[in-house]
Amino acid sequence: MLEIAPRRIKEAVIRVPGSKSYTHRVLIASALAAGESVVDGALFSRDTELTAAALRKFGAEIAAEPENHRFVVRGTGGRLQPCAEEIYLENSGTSMRLLTAIAALGRGEYLLDGSARMRERPMAELLEALRQLDVPAVALAGSGCPPIRITGGRLLGGPVEIDCAISSQYLSGLLLAAPLTPRGMRIKVVRGPVSKPYIELTMKVMRNFKIKVEHRDYLEFSVPGKQVYEAGSRLVEPDCSQAGYFWAAAAICGAEIKVADIRPDSSQGDLQFVRVLEKMGCKVDFAPDGVTVAGPGRLAAVEVDMGDMPDLVPTLAVVAAFAEGTTRISNVAHLRAKESDRLAAVAAELGKLGIVAECGPDSIAVTGGTPSGARISTYDDHRIAMSFSLVGLRVPGVVIEDQMCVAKSFPNYWEVFARLGR
Q1: pLDDT at residue 276 greater than cutoff 70
Q2: How many CB atoms lie within 10 A of CB 49?
């Protein structure tokens, strides 16, 4: 447990680690390339280490240099080796969904499993799409959730339909595998997709590796087959999801906080979180060396569709606890299938603070007030821990349970957080 000490913050410059979403995808693309790739600025966290470990089992040679934020990857050229061992991915949904599709490129059977919570997270839509492509893909418990058995050696490509109402990662996995198939893929999205910026990010990574991919309105995708991922040097951007905690701290504390090295032209959808804070009364400054948020004297409630920024919903809900009025967050049903049921978790923990929060099937409404101290359950969910830590900047008596769950995405979060107010 960790008790947060309230503090006065006037201004700060913060640096956050590399993007988790970029790191996963660049590692996978590097592992599929022929030759050596150097990945700089990479995030070293539990989730990205799980992806790297799995790719080693697929035959990639990956040297980790965490002190330099660098991976050096000698790729497989798309020829994945068989793997008799179970590939254990804990509760990394990104690893599970992307690597399930990649396993179809291999030979023989691959077994992918995870933690108790991972065994509750849906995969049925991706498995159905793989079966359309003649890939034997089975959820062994019959629940549509891990453990998953994929039999490689039969992925030729072709037309496929996929339901992306729960997760865009199903589509990202197919996209990453598609260029290495003989026929390529023509993918039609029949529901969704949610989180479109993450799909755009996947395509950006593919194009950086010289892969051709096209889409029409995020509903139809075309990837020619027999392509080659081109090895080389790649740079991972700082993580806008992680930056969001510090921009939110500026909003809550009436401070001015810059997150360094965030590019104004970043393709990460979570950069748009600053626009939400702007509507709540904050001032935002985009500069070549970072993005700054200055909090106002008083925050105003907003109504906002967060379908493209789901990871920042807990953070926005915490900011809303300090705003005047009721903030309504919509189009976020997919949050119920994350590391925790984030809608239920956020509502429960805000309730402990004395803040009224009401959930619908795909929404949450938070009425601002005067939060009080409380012991915060984190549900083994990194984003709950980091979001609710922000309350403690203003409110005494906030205690975060299992604070080290942040290692999933931001291992040195508490060290960076401690710099606020110094």
Answers
A1: yes
A2: 18
Render pLDDT for 159-171 as a digit per residue (tens, 0 to 9): 999 999 999 999 9
- Judge whether 2-16+239-418 and 20-222 match in fold: yes
Give the full edge-to-edge strand order of the sheet including 2-3: 2-3, 399-400, 375-376
Q: Which residues pair with 390 in a beta bridge?
A: none
Per DSSP (E only), the strands in 254-348 are 256-260, 283-287, 290-294, 303-305, 326-330
Q: Under 8 Å CB-to-CB from 418, ≥6 apart: which residues? A: none
pLDDT tens for 191-229 read 999 999 999 999 999 999 999 999 999 999 999 999 999
Q: Are 374 and 364 in contact (CB under 8 A)?
A: no
- The token pair at 272 is 């748009």
Is 384:410 a contact under the CB 8 Å cutoff? no
- Residue 417 has phi, psi (to 5 degrees) of -60, -40
First CA to last CA distance, the chain = 22
Q: Which of 311, 341, 380, 381 is catalytic?
A: 311
| Alpha carbon 248 to chain centroid, angstroms | 18
pLDDT exceeds 70 at position 422? no
**Three-class DSSP category at 422:** coil
Taking the C-alpha atoms of residue 319 and residue 15, their distance in angstroms, rounded to an integer, is: 21
CATH architecture of 2-16+239-418: Alpha-beta prism (3.65)
Q: What is the pLDDT of residue 318?
A: 98
d(CA 165, CA 190): 9
- The H or E element that residue 200 is part of is helix 196-208
Alpha helices in 73-191 (DSSP H): 93-103, 124-132, 169-177
Give the helix/strand (H/E) hosting 242. Answer: helix 240-253
Structure tokens at 7: 């503090």
CA angle 45, 205, 341 (to 5 degrees): 50
DSSP SS3 for 283? strand
- For the question of residue 285 being annotated catalytic, the response is no
CA angle (289 as vertex; 286, 295 as ends), nearest 5: 45
Distance CA 331, CA 404 (A): 30
Between the alpha carbon of residue 312 and those of residues 195, 245, 246, 306, the distances in Å are 12, 8, 12, 8
CA-CA distance, 9 to 213, in Å (whole number)?
46
Has residue 304 got a pLDDT over 70? yes
Question: 20-222 — its CATH code?
Answer: 3.65.10.10
Residue pair 125/164 in contact (Cβ under 8 Å)? The answer is: yes
